[in-house]
């Protein structure tokens, strides 16, 4: 494998983005050449044509449900070319945290190569600002999931596990000086808690060599250091005595740790001294890993609520948001690593797929609303280089892995251009979160409402550890239900005020009107026991998911009975809004 060069990666990116339109045409042609005999393309009469106009006129826009019959046939063992020219031998499982049911997505060698391409591009730009020393390590909180075999003998697991199982990926990451300090025995452990403990242990043992701290999602980073607060003394004891805690029972992990864990009282004392000197764990990451250059992971969208706590742990270390993609494929790279996560944009790599954008406009009556509206008027999709700065779009992607004109469901804003490729700002998932009748509120609307209400808890020195929502239609009128897990108890009057604040913070015209005429009932705020979201995580793991893939569902579908049961059984208090009168 050629040695990776940051300078060459940046130069290649500059060349490809200077004429993004031509690269897009070439990319689509290559995708269609590779998959020319796919049944899906033949079904719509493309008949070997490879130009953009024929492709758009023949192949309709689609969502995952349109592809499910083909993917199910693949899972059942049909080896004929259904979505791709070559048989698909691996499937990735999406999280399934909202609906309660994971979905299959094809995983191909081309997706692996795209992952490396986008990782190399963003790493090159990061390394220009925050150089990583040769041979240094990364503290990576990554976890595999169990692999299942479909009826047809196809291996299905999470995208993260599919990547980490492939030598090509591990070699590529090692070449970029982003080698995980933990061995495979820890990454592929069947027990998440034991894996997390040992990630921390390896990180401490190699503390002087760690130059970056990473997890796929911001919440995984926050969860790791919340766990560290609980087990740091045990970790110190392991390092001091050179003996792994008896709580770690997986034989393969114990065998791996035994190779590097030796008595080191000096390191244990240093860790203990640093931990005891911290004020409420502020700056624990740079304190224990003094050579770390930054903290890295996906920090946009549903991860934004975790940034306050993550900044607390990171102190003055930069937080850098990871690249923009989904289980289906990659969209853009973060080439501006010094920009805060809340303002990050992603430059689309025109060679990783064929991209279209559906223009979205709010109806005239809603243009002045502050809500993240989903009442959009759609126009015909435009190409990558045809988008306009300041306007919003839904992303459509065609991938090498057989997803054709696939609506990703993400709303993005065009923040600018790098050469001729657009830089996207992620706005929100387009999918509906909260709706009872004519009201429509998105995940972003929910996040803004929670952030507004959280201000009332600051005087109490209480934090919202995590949150979700649902709708309650068992009584008439239906109502919104918001669930909070708090760091400690809060004053009853304050929590009542929080319920009122949440109710008033939803600015969607349909919601405001419905509340005023009482066709939607008072919002209900439910307070949960500590550990409730950990219980939801455990349930997710039983479905075959991985911790590194898990995202707290911001809306729990009424059909997701098990998660709703967990929330209901862990509710300790309930507060109904009086904001619109009783």
Automatic annotation (TrEMBL):
The keyword Ligase applies. Keywords: Ligase. Coiled coil: none annotated. The keyword Ligase applies. GO terms for molecular function: ligase activity. Residues 444-557 form the GH3 C-terminal domain. Residues 346-429 form the GH3 middle domain. Belongs to the IAA-amido conjugating enzyme family. This is Jasmonic acid-amido synthetase JAR1. The lineage of its organism: Eukaryota, Viridiplantae, Streptophyta, Embryophyta, Tracheophyta.
């Amino acid at each position: 494998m050629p040695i990776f060069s940051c300078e060459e990666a940046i130069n290649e990116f500059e060349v490809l983005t200077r004429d993004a339109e031509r690269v897009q045409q070439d990319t689509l042609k290559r995708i269609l050449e590779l998959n020319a005999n796919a049944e899906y393309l033949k079904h719509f009469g493309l008949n070997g044509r490879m130009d953009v106009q024929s492709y758009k006129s023949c192949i309709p826009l689609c969502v995952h449900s349109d592809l499910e019959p083909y993917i199910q046939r693949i899972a059942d063992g049909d080896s004929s070319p259904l979505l791709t020219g070559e048989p698909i031998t691996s499937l990735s499982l999406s999280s399934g945290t909202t609906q309660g049911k994971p979905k299959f997505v094809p995983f191909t060698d081309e997706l692996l190569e795209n992952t490396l391409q986008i990782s190399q591009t963003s790493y090159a730009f990061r390394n220009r600002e925050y150089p990583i020393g040769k041979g240094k390590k990364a503290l990576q909180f990554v976890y595999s999931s169990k692999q299942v075999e479909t009826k047809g003998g196809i291996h299905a697991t999470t995208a993260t596990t599919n990547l980490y199982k492939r030598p090509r990926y591990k070699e590529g990451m090692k070449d970029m000086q982003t080698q995980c300090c933990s061995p495979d025995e820890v990454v592929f452990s069947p027990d998440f808690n034991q894996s997390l403990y040992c990630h921390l242990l390896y990180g401490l043992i190699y503390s002087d060599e760690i130059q970056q701290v990473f997890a796929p999602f911001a919440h995984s980073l926050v969860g790791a250091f919340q766990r560290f607060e609980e087990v740091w003394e045990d970790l110190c004891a392991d390092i001091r005595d050179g003996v792994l805690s008896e709580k770690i029972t997986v034989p393969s992990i114990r065998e791996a740790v035994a190779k590097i864990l030796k008595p080191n009282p000096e390191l244990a004392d240093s860790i203990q001294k640093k931990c005891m000197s911290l004020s409420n764990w502020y700056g624990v990451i740079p304190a224990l890993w003094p050579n770390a250059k930054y903290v890295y992971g996906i920090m946009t969208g549903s991860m934004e609520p975790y940034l306050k706590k993550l900044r607390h742990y990171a102190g003055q270390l930069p937080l850098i948001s990871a690249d923009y993609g989904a289980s289906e494929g990659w969209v853009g790279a973060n080439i501006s690593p010094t920009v805060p996560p809340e303002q990050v944009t992603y430059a689309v790599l025109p060679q990783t797929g064929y991209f279209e954008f559906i223009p979205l406009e709010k109806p005239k009556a809603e243009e002045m609303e502050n809500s993240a509206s989903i009442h959009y008027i759609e126009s015909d999709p435009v190409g990558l280089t045809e988008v306009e700065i300041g306007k919003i779009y839904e992303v459509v992607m065609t991938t090498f892995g057989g997803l054709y004109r696939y609506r990703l469901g993400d709303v993005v804003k065009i923040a600018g251009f790098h050469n001729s490729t657009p830089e996207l700002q992620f706005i929100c998932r387009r999918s509906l979160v909260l709706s009872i009748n004519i009201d429509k509120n998105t995940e972003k609307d929910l996040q803004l409402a929670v952030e507004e209400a959280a201000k009332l808890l600051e005087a109490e020195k209480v934090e919202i550890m995590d949150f979700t929502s649902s709708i309650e239609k068992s009584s008439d009128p239906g109502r919104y239900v918001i669930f909070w897990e708090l760091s400690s108890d809060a004053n009853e009057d304050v929590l009542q005020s929080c319920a009122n604040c949440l109710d008033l913070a939803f600015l969607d015209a349909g919601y405001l009107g419905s509340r005023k005429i009482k066709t939607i009932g008072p919002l209900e705020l439910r307070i949960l026991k500590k550990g409730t979201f950990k219980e939801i995580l455990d349930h997710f793991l039983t479905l075959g998911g991985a911790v590194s893939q898990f995202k707290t569902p911001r809306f729990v579908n009424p059909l997701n009975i098990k998660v709703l049961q967990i929330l209901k059984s862990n509710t300790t208090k309930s507060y109904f809004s009086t904001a619109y009168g009783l």
